[in-house]
Specification:
heterodimer, A: 24 helices, B: mainly beta, 5-stranded antiparallel beta sheet, 4-stranded mixed beta sheet
Chain lengths: ~425, ~550
Amino acid sequence: MKLLCLLCLLCMFVICSAQTPLTVHWPDLSQLEPDVRDQIKSQQDILISTVKDTQSTKAKLSAAYGAMGEIYHAYSLTAPARECYLNANTLDPKDFRWIYLLAKLDQLDGRVDDAIRRYRIFTSLRPELVAAFVNLGNIYLELDRLEDARSNYTTALQKDPNSPAARYGLGQVALSQRNYAEAVEHFEKALALAPDANRIHYALAMAYRGLRNEEKTKLHLAQQGPVGVRVADPLMDRLVQLVEGARVHLIRGKLALEAKRYEEAANEFRKAIEARPYSVPAHVNLGAALTQLGDLKGAAEEFSKAVAIDPNNANAHYNLAVLLANEKQHQQAIVHLQAVSTINPNDLGARFFLAQQLLYAKRPDEALKLAQSLYSTTRALQHGALVGSALAELGRCGEAAEWQRKLIARAVEERNNELEAKLKTELQRYESCRP
Amino acid sequence: MHSVLQLSAFLAIAVSILAPIYVPQTSLPNFEEVAVKTGLNFHHYNGMNGKFFLPEIMGAGAALFDYDNDGDLDVFLVQGAAFEPVSNPPAGGRLFRNDLEVGTNGSRKLRFTDVTEKSRILANRYGMGAAVGDINNDGWPDLYLTNLGSNQMYLNKGDGTFDDVTKNTATDDPRWSTAASFVDYDRDGWLDLMIVNYAEFSFTNSPNCYAPTSARDYCTPRVFRAPGNRLLHNRRDGTFEDVTVAAGVDKEFGHGLGVVTADFDDDGWIDIYVANDGDPNQLWMNQKNGTFKNEALLAGAAVNRDGKTEAGMGVDAGDFDGSGTDDIFVTHLMEETNTLFTNVGAAVFEDRTREAGLGMPGRRLTGFGTLFFDYDNDGWLDLLVVNGAVQLLPELIRKGDPFPLGQPNQLFHNTGNGRFVEIVEQAGPSFQLLEVSRGAAFGDVDNDGDTDVLVTNNNGPVRLLLNQLGSRNHWLGLRITGKSSRDMLGAQVDVVVRKNQVLRRRVRTDGSYLSANDPRVLVGLGNATQVEAVRVRWPDGSVAELKAPPIDRYTTIKQ
């Protein structure tokens, strides 16, 4: 804490000596990953020495503050990033980068008037960057200033006729005005330009719903997903390149995983492992991404590495068990599921899975015991059905049939038609094996 | 100030559009915080131990309910617990009796007394939320507590004490339950129970999670599997039956945090809306045969207008635009908006967040408890959102805040033209505090004809915000009860102020976040000095009308 204050005072001092009125409040770095902390500290050192250097020009000082701001911004330390950008902008008002990045922060913080003002300044300096017009359009759209939004999206489209983000924005303007036919036209074009952006399907479905076209509404709802429209944004993309450290790659990988961008996710997790080879979450998540990409062998390797590093990681055991079960390696799957049950006795899903695997592995005694315990806890019909299966597997077909009939009665009472049908099919099997 | 009236059967008449009522603003604060002053001494304990367990930042809620049937709202506050043995554990959830004194000149003295021990409520588990409903139709409201782990059903014996009947009623859910709602979904005159569950969390399987700064932080619920919800049917014999599968509500999973019930398609059968954290929300439409179908996606209420799944926390339903249909409002994470789904009829929703002016103000804060309520009694439903982050805020870390999640709460005034305006300074000093607010229970605590708000803070003190503004306008207070004096949750109330001006409200205790609200219906009348009629559609579908009810007082309407 003392060191922090000292740095803060030093920074205040050096800023004053550079005749800029703004104070940069150093963030607390004590809880950050060591790599990240080192990276930020070294940039702080550069900034301090640049400020101390009486030979530093305003342009050089501006660049140093800007670079510091970018690093903070890259790690979501937005308050000190803003202060650095403001200093950079004051020292060199014509450097468009700091105005743009300030506008991005304004937009993030909900300072809409400042964001609009800065984006306008930026577009006067660099009218070729489509992202700025799209960002302006997005702000106006959120403010329900539809004509201003339309105007900015239109400008963006004039500069880049293939901008899916601008098309999508125009579609949203039309949807807000309940001009459904126009919305459909824009969304269809946006989708053609960015077919992977499956979130567009939802907007398209809502536009078709407005036109009372039920067939197309359902068709697009069935295709909707989590991937949104992206706009090329070189200034923001640059920030992404600044990031170091396993944790941040891990976070990015998870975001990509959730957005179903599996290749990107796998790459981020690989970078995380590169930065920290013994990171269990990185191995587990890389395994998950590889599973989605169909590389099951690679996935199993990653889960195995995770288990080797941390034998108490239930997720790694469970995922490995799923892959092994898929390969019909039931005995090995059982080992990992038993580990999950030991680590997390309340994981009913894992216990159910384990009972199934015990059955497949021809270990019905154990399966029965587990299924009975599970059913007594949950009273769930599907858990009860496993008891029947285990009894039948043990050759106790009469008991199995009797048990099954009770379950069927419950399924009828609960109007669970789907399970009732399944239970009845199994009952036939049990009855036919009756001595 | 209180009268009981019987109604005659009446044919339902279509609801017409409400004309705006203008009420000038005053310069006085709208809400005054009086918790400690009135004896509500309670500090939430979240058990945090540096391991960043997700449950510690999610609770807790509260209930406003008249457990002793003396005509004023009492308070139950849900408490957390220690994750590991500690030398001085918290005392568990607390019940405070409201000893309101009303002078002959109308003056009010509000005082709460802790009666937990006397009540025999033993809520010393890791508590999350509370729901209120009379499960045995004896006229005494019962209390359901959701926990991290087994839940608790407390039967109100009517003598100031409660019995834990969880086992006998078969109303437990051993998972991490959050919100719950009492709802008579099959119109048999008995309250059923919908329980919403959040995540399959365990202490042994809680991974380390990190913020974009790379610092250790709380996990999102997505690292844990979603457990699914539970619907319990009241067997009318003191027990409940698990009908989750039979009713079809097992078909969709999500990390559930909020639940609200309303008749969204106006077919006379109550539907259920579940707000999920990071998963699509569910709109369980009542199929009138004991089953439900999730129609949220097609209805336009599952995700926001961009098709993006948001982090649903608190939720409420209400007719904010006077269209005669219940709209939905869901609170979300910072960088997302809180989202307003406008019901354009027959449970078809449009995300009109931007048009309502609610987009930008929600982006900078993480919302939890919320409700549509008419704080200034001008006839239009306003909104209050209580906030508190779920990821550590770097600016508060830098300032040395030991629990750096605090954010201010927000009051939004409905301007009557489909838009809301945030009221900042005028809302009162408590709206400037940076606290980790979670639950919010709404009700007229001092019976003066306006809605007060009980705000719970995670790892912080409870706040009671007394409304100083609403009672300056005229109002109509209704308690809608059944033959057994039970509050008829789910009853729909149309207040015909004058021709072409009908205000639609409903009887409920659910909505908001982890909290239970005043079951009475309080309707702001602005400058109107009389009401032509009140029409009630009872949960069984029958309709009744009361002509010219008295205003500026509470009236009980009995079925």
